[in-house]
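Good morning N.,

You mentioned wanting to compare the apo and holo forms, so I went ahead and generated the holo version with pyridoxal-5'-phosphate. This is what I fed in:
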Amino acid sequence: MQIADRINNLGTENAFKVLAEVNKLKATGKDIISFGLGEPDFNTPENVKKTAVEAIRSNYTHYSPSAGIPDLRKEIANYISRTRVIPVDPEEVVVTPGGKPGIFYSILCLINPGDEVIYPNPGYPIYESIIDFVGAKSIPVPMLEEKGFSLDVNKLESLITTKTKMIVLNSPQNPTGGIIEKEDLRAIAELAIKNDLIVLSDEIYSEIIFDSKFCSISSFPKMKERTIILDGFSKTYAMTGWRVGYGIFNKEVAAHIANLVTNSVSCTATFSQIASIEALRGPQDETLKMIEIFKNRSKLITDGLNDIKGIRCIKPKGAFYVFPNVTQACVNLGFKTSEELQQYLLHEGNVAVLPRSSFGKRNVGESEEYIRLSYAVSNDDIIRGLDRIKKAVEKR
Ligand code: PLP
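and this is what came out, ligand included:
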């Protein structure tokens, strides 16, 4: 069959490819420790699961409105109002099957071919993929190790042209665990206002933040109307398989996004939505416990990585990823790129990680090598995995 041209512009998320490779190796009897996939290794809280089972028994098994069940939209509006300190009307909320469709729908709805969209790089690969897919120009802004994996606002400003329509932000960030500090967010807000730009703020890790307070760019004056907030239940409530996320849009855009939902998936699974109401309304202790555990692990894994010759790792400030610099380890092992290191660690060390190339094209002038490790694995596995990496990396 002849594939449509536009498909060639679509990227992918390599984490799923590595997962398939890991599963294949495991099926042959290999014991692989995987730092590959970005999902909490915790179970969904019992109260949420119980609510879903009851919802199915009560026949919440039909379609729901495309924009989401009114009670859930109301609960989300309350939650976002409270946490971002902005007024949010339930009609500004659109529920989607996970956080990911929010990225897809927002860019599809607001970006024309030829528009320029600035996005974080390294970054969650779906931004670059969808920007390219709609025929826009993807303009990477480097996330810099020396800035704690935040961006340089002057650099960002230099990338803005008359064609720039949107800036994508993600803080706390996948894959680096970095955050954009409040003062930088303020400066970015000023740039957005001055240049009349939309900000797509992916805040899916907003609750998983360690020593600082989360700050949303939407909280600055005059920013709510030009910001799209994306968030969801996958990470905060360990609900990746339930597929519930949402976006906060102005009412006009929300109606178009809801129409995109109607045209693509009709609605988000109804019982998943009922369970999500309970996630927001019910006790938060499981989530708080999970965040504390991630915080402890972030120290364990950072210290362990820094103890390996040729690897240096800055302490993440949120999410559940570390992004160590492995340039010297690659040199020591005779590897040109972190992809070679990733393959070596998988096949010789029995440890799965993701290479830099899984998170966007290399920035101009970028010469360092990185890998991502997700520490959504037990302390035991972190210790055993680090031991394997150390042995493999220090072997030569
Ligand atoms: N945004 C970022 C930055 C992510 O890391 C992820 C998942 O890894 C998502 C969005 C998508 O989340 P969901 O599983 O809810 O679609």
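The chain is about 40% helix and 15% strand.

Happy to go through it together on a call whenever suits you.

Best,
F.
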